[in-house]
Amino acid sequence: MPLAASFAKASSSFLFICIYLSLILYRIYCDRQLHKICYSLQVTFKTWFFDVFFLLVLLFFFFANLQFSRVIVSLWVVITPFFVMFTKMMIQRYSRSFAQAKIQVAVLGRHYEFNALEHEVLEIQGVELTYFSLEDNQDIEKTMLSMSPDYLLLNLETPATNQLIKELTHLDLKGIRLIVLHHFMESFLRKCYIPYDGEDLSYLEKVRSYSLKNYLLKRTIDWLAVFSISLCCFPIIIYTVTAVRRQSPGNVLFRQCRVGKSGENFVALKFRSMHEGAHFDPYTQKEDPRIFPFGSVMRKFRIDELPQLWNVMKGEMHLVGPRTEWNILVENYERGIPYYNERHIVRPGISGWAQVCYPYGTNLEDARQKLMYDLYYIKHWSVWLELETLLRTVVVVLSRKGL
């Protein structure tokens, strides 16, 4: 019986690996872009589903008369996908130093300057940028053919001339893959490029609210998460109420007008982390004197956000979505950032793709960068992106980086 059980689990594990590798190879063949499947939860969990189904069939038809420990089988089912993801991440982490080939990207122009965080993300993916200027290279076709990059990124400061379009067309016919800036950023950086001038009105067509099916899936995740988090964090909530009252007398809850879906205001709830009557400043500074000791702990571990679960239950927020912003700040952002209002086509969230991908911001450019991530999240929403955001949120909270 132990031998039969071992054979069943070994066969299922072997099938898991075969299906997983097959799906990866198929995705590479179709997309020819390794970065798209490097951290794919979808591939792992789809393989896990087929593998569990195969294990149950194997046990039912071939080993029905044998005794199996349900605890061991259940643990195997639960642990397997996480073990595979962990192993995959470790292999990727330690194989980067041995990898010789990088994704060579020739950048034509400097219309958009990639920041340090973007360079870091590209380096992790093995992407190497080489910049070229039209002024320095008159014969772009000859230069690109001699370099033979994987991609030619069009990052032009001015509209392309007829001569340049002709050369780019020749390069396309000769196998040089052309990629425009917004496509590059969505594929490699997982954010939507926002033009500074706002002249591209077609941008308004690119981002739409969730479909009815996606909305129902998202609300289901909201309710499951609210129930689970409330149950697990109930002792923390009770302790927080006591600690706030002890260290900073006054109201336990902090209420502030925030902008929600369709630009409508609502009252967001948080545990108060600053002394009442502290001087006004829309941004929190490092070691801010307005924050009392336990308030700092709440901010690091996001405990102050727990009352917003009530906003999620009321339907004013989602668990994951664009960050809730103060209505006064929103007015300033709308004046300085094109398409800022697009983030309000969906409800805001306690956590969000921008919060787990970009550090805390204190200026207009930071708000613009976060908006790029918010719009990517809305445009490319899926259950897998939702799960990835939640997993990243847990990592950020446990690492005490805040959101």
UniProtKB/TrEMBL annotation:
Q: What class of enzyme is it?
A: transferase
- Keywords carried by this UniProt record: Membrane, Transferase, Transmembrane, Transmembrane helix
List the molecular function annotations (GO) for this entry: phosphotransferase activity, for other substituted phosphate groups
For this protein, the Enzyme Commission number is 2.7.8.40
The UniProt entry, under Pfam families, shows: Bac_transf
Q: Which InterPro entries does the protein's record reference?
A: Bact_transf
Bilayer-spanning residue ranges: 6-26, 47-66, 72-91, 221-241
Bacterial sugar transferase domain residues are 218-398
What family classification does the UniProt entry report for this protein? Belongs to the bacterial sugar transferase family.
Q: What is this protein called?
A: UDP-N-acetylgalactosamine-undecaprenyl-phosphate N-acetylgalactosaminephosphotransferase
Which classification does the entry list for the species? Bacteria, Pseudomonadati, Pseudomonadota, Gammaproteobacteria, Oceanospirillales
